[in-house]
Fold these 3 entries.
Entry 1:
Amino acid sequence: MSDKDIKKEQEHEELQENTASAETEGNLNQVDETEETATKDQQDGAAAELAEMKDKYIRLMAEFENFRRRTAKERQDILKTANQDLMGELLPVLDDMERARQAMEETKDVDALLQGLELVFHKLRQVTQQKGLKVMDIPAGADFDADMHEAVTQIPAPSEELKGKIVDVIEKGYTLNDKVIRFAKVIIGA
């Protein structure tokens, strides 16, 4: 072979090597571009998911704030009108008391006045019982219960059986739907 042939062959080999390396570099560039695209897609997906989660969080917080305001307003409205029903039922009793007062000014018949007052008192008791108000029944000699009674004072017990027990009730106690709203004031035997 001649020098020209050898040179041509070397050039041809270099050309093939260059082409092969260019193709390899192109493939590597394509792989790099593909990896960059995949990474970019993952980042874009994560950013979109984060944005969606932030939006959901903001909406949830706004919903909760609206709920809180609405319930606070409802609570205030209930407190304003809570006694309306009770007062509506007490108005006839109040009317009866006014009529009884007028009758006391005009008449001298004590028995008729007592009967009228007894009727008004009975009506008042009936209205309060319908609403759940009950008088505590505390007989003398009953055990003292700090959850129901308030000891005002202690006196020497009239008998041995009344030591540490209720001797007398000074002021009645009341429960409203089984919850004590006024403790009975009692005297305890010592």
Entry 2:
Amino acid sequence: MAMDDDGKQAQRKAAMAVLAHSDVAHIAARLDAITLPAHENLRQPENGLVMVRGRVGGEGAPFNLGEATVSRAAVRLATGEVGFGYTLGRDRQKAHMIALCDALIQSADHAGAVEAQVLAPLRAAVASERNRKAAETAATRVEFYTLVRGEG
């Protein structure tokens, strides 16, 4: 059972990563393609601040880098699954849709549909955009050569 819970947590984590990197219009269009079950807001979408922490060299002592604006929401399906959504910025609608997707992927009745009709297309779009940006960046790459003088 512990392995099953770990698998579900990994699935939720992967879904949240895709949703966080997706555009709100794309998420909304994909959610419109499926029949959404009855749900209620446990936490209305709201904006707030979180402290961003950093470490020098990734290993040094932690320090407070600054604050970032986030939006968050919590949703409960009529069948009892609870989903949470967080996103950087002030997009309450996106936080609500992420929370709804999180609840849906925990539901045995809706997980397959959400994966096939929402997450898989969004995952492909995120990968495509990432590849486009990588190709654009690679096109501007400059190679530097140094010459060694023969003083010696």
Entry 3:
Amino acid sequence: MNTANTYPDAINPAMVGEYDAHCFSGSGYFYDQVLEYRVWCHPERGAEDIYQGDDYFYAFATFAEALAYSQQTAGAETPLVLIRQYEYINEPSPGVFEHCHGDRITEWQPQWLAGSKREPDSIARFLQQPPI
């Protein structure tokens, strides 16, 4: 498993915290950019209640910062990573894969970053031998 220092930093630290809270969750198999790391906080689990019971997140430029915050904050989840995809794989039904183009932002588990940085031929290679 990766340590906190092996995950890529946000591509543009000045933009960390500026991305919309509403985004896709998971999927796509490949990423183009790491935008930020998010730690979601839940008042019902002991996080400070600053939004009348609603969940909220703090954004960080590095996984290490996000992990440290999550470990010391009551009601905080483990970090997620916000990524941008310019090309990705859609799986509309099990074992059916589609190569998609378009700017999409989604939250991932950080461990999914390992080996998933999209290269020019990543999707073509994936589609030749999908994991079914």
